[in-house]
Design goal:
Elements: H1 3-25, H2 33-36, H3 39-56, H4 67-83, H5 90-118, H6 124-151, H7 167-190, H8 198-208, H9 213-226, H10 230-262, H11 270-293, H12 297-304, H13 306-323, E1 332-336, E2 342-345, H14 349-361, H15 364-370, H16 378-407, H17 412-430
Helix pairs in contact: 1-4, 1-5, 1-6, 1-7, 1-10, 1-11, 3-5, 3-9, 3-16, 4-5, 4-7, 5-16, 6-7, 6-11, 6-14, 6-15, 10-11, 10-16, 10-17, 11-14, 12-13, 13-14, 13-15, 13-17
């Protein structure tokens, strides 16, 4: 059921680790990076509530309710991934990112609703943590793919295309295009969807008779906002601070590493290229931790409760990011017994904690939400809930672009420190979420 989530997250992982570097190879400077990341949050803000509402009111005996959206999104995303490394200018890359993010959001939103459609409430933790597992696995392979291609000798670190983008990035995006469509096809071809009850089907038909699809979709979103459950409202700051933090992290990690470890942010230097590969390795590591601990978090969530587990998880990641500038890549912690041995440097410590944070972010808020929303409005509410992710990203982009980066001394390391503080604040807010009493079925 969740295997296609791997492909969607592989695509997101490629963006997280490579887009800032791609922009810099094409001539962007540090101050322009936030605005160039605008595509993701804006397309999420517009696409997910609309797709959620439309999929709630969709049913085809042949194609189902959510699966057509998975497949359309995956195909369009694959085409954008193939084209991205051929970008000849900053704005071509930015335009392709808009298409890529819109497609990924078309596939992503129905996947959240798919869990609530198919699982009883007592299995929500398992369902959403399974998505955390595939999030971690997909993003891990996306992050490590360029480094693997270089380390195996298939490509050289210095191999670059005419536009300055490394050849390893080109191959990684091509592999991502295949993964995106192939894994979604596994879900589409092997998973069934429960048909609506006669009452639900009658309601769908009645809604269709009311007017145009655009008007019906808009009306449904407006009503859902007015009837938003209290638990969902309390989750707004729980989502705001961590997602603001993660956007800071994705945008500025490569530059922060290059400055912290090698004392340069010059994209023409070999040190910056090393920092880009290290970014992929670090992001891959936190995603390895994410899918490794996802199942271990299930019994902990049952014992502590979702909100307490979320607080602990965010605090661990926040402390890790605050410590990042103090870590180096020369002190070896241990050596993995793989091949000739893989040395794990001190800098990887923060990514271990961030992996726990990421696993919780991909699951616990959705568990708290899913038990508080009506089952026949799952799609639209999951789409609206995504606004709690993308609005912080939009605020981060404009605030970072116009005054926060200046307040932080134009120093990418300070941006990472800010991200650490915001993760901890988000964890504190999670403790104040009130959930309805659990029921047995």
């Amino acid at each position: 059921m969740n295997f296609g989530f791997f492909g969607v997250q592989f695509s997101f992982g490629l963006q997280q680790s490579n887009m800032s570097a791609i922009y810099k190879y094409l001539g962007a400077n540090e101050a322009e990076l936030p605005m160039l990341w605008l595509a993701g949050p804006v397309t999420g803000l517009l696409v997910q509530p609309i797709i959620g509402a439309i999929s709630d009111g969709t049913w085809s005996p042949k194609f189902g309710r959510r699966k057509p959206f998975f497949l359309i999104g995956a195909i369009v995303a694959s085409l954008a991934l193939i084209a991205m490394p051929y970008s000849s200018s900053i704005w071509m890359a930015a335009s392709l990112l808009w298409i890529l993010d819109a497609a990924n959001n078309i596939a992503l939103e129905p996947y959240r609703a798919f869990i609530s459609d198919k699982l009883p409430e007592k299995q929500y933790s398992l369902g959403f943590l399974m998505q955390s597992f595939f999030t971690g696995l997909g993003t891990t392979l996306a992050n490590f793919t360029p480094a693997i291609l270089v380390s195996l000798g298939i490509l050289a670190l210095s191999d670059k295309m005419d536009n300055g983008i490394p050849v390893s990035t080109y191959w990684a995006f091509g592999i991502g295009a295949i993964a995106s469509t192939a894994t979604i096809l596994v879900t589409v071809l092997t998973t069934s969807e429960y048909p609506p009850t006669p009452e639900e089907l009658a309601k769908i038909e009645a809604e269709k008779a009311k007017g145009s699809l655009v008007k019906r979709t808009w009306d449904e979103i407006v009503v859902a906002f007015k009837e938003m459950p209290t638990t969902m409202k309390q989750l707004i700051p729980v989502m705001f601070f961590p997602w603001y933090a993660m956007f800071c992290y994705w945008q500025y990690l490569t530059s922060a590493l290059s400055l912290s470890l090698y004392n340069t942010t010059d994209p023409a230097s070999s040190f910056f290229n090393q920092a880009q590969l290290l970014t992929g390795n670090l992001n891959g590591t936190y995603n390895i931790i994410c899918f490794s601990v996802a199942f271990a978090l299930i019994p902990i969530a049952r014992r502590l409760g979702a909100k307490r587990l979320h607080f602990v998880s965010l605090a661990i990641g926040g402390i890790g990011l605050l410590c990042m500038p103090l870590l180096n890549d020369t002190t070896i912690l241990f050596t993995l017994p793989l091949g000739d041995g893989i040395e794990v440097a001190q800098i990887y410590l923060f990514s271990f904690g961030l992996g726990i944070t990421w696993a919780s972010m991909m699951a616990m808020p959705y568990e708290m939400l899913a038990s508080s929303i009506p089952s026949n409005k799952t799609g639209v509410y999951m789409g609206i809930f995504n606004m709690f992710i993308v609005i912080p990203m939009i605020i981060q982009i404009f605030s970072m672009q116009y005054f926060v980066y200046d307040l932080l001394g134009n120093n990418p390391i300070n941006v990472i420190r800010l991200a650490g503080v915001f993760l901890i604040i988000g964890g504190i807010f999670s403790l104040f979420v009130k959930q309805k009493a659990e029921t047995t079925d």
